[in-house]
Amino acid sequence: MVNQESQTQDIVPICICDKAHKCPCFVSEEEINRRVKKEVDVLFQQLLKFMRDITSDYEERIKANKKLRSEVEEKKIELQEAEKLLASLKSRSG
Q: From start to end of 8-57, where are the E strands?
């Protein structure tokens, strides 16, 4: 059985640093908050861009949809006029 002292000597610390407070192990709460805020700001900007892109795409689709609806209405009117003309021609020939 291995004794307790030899077991503890085999443990390697997670961080080997000079404790000069430049190691991530010794980052202050203020520094952590600063880093988190920076990341949140970056994520916010990405989200804002994403939302702008989606909004722009949505508005383009609405515009295209309105244009298509207008074209469909124009074609309906043309069809009605053609049907009237056809009916008129049929009545004359019959």
A: none
- In the chain, what are the helix, strand and coil shares in percent, each to the nearest 5? 80, 0, 20
Closest CA to 14 of 29, 6, 1, 26: 26
CA atoms lying within 13 Å on the CB side of residue 42: 6
What is the Rg, in whole angstroms, of the alpha carbon atoms belonging to the chain?
37
Determine how many CB atoms are found less than 10 A away from the CB of residue 38: 10
What's the CA gap between 34 and 94, in Å, rounded?
89
| Contacts for 21 with CB less than 8 Å, ≥ 6 apart | 28
Eight-class DSSP state of 22: -
Question: In the structure, what pLDDT confidence band is assigned to residue 28 with cuts at 50, 70 and 90?
Answer: confident
Total-model pTM: 0.54
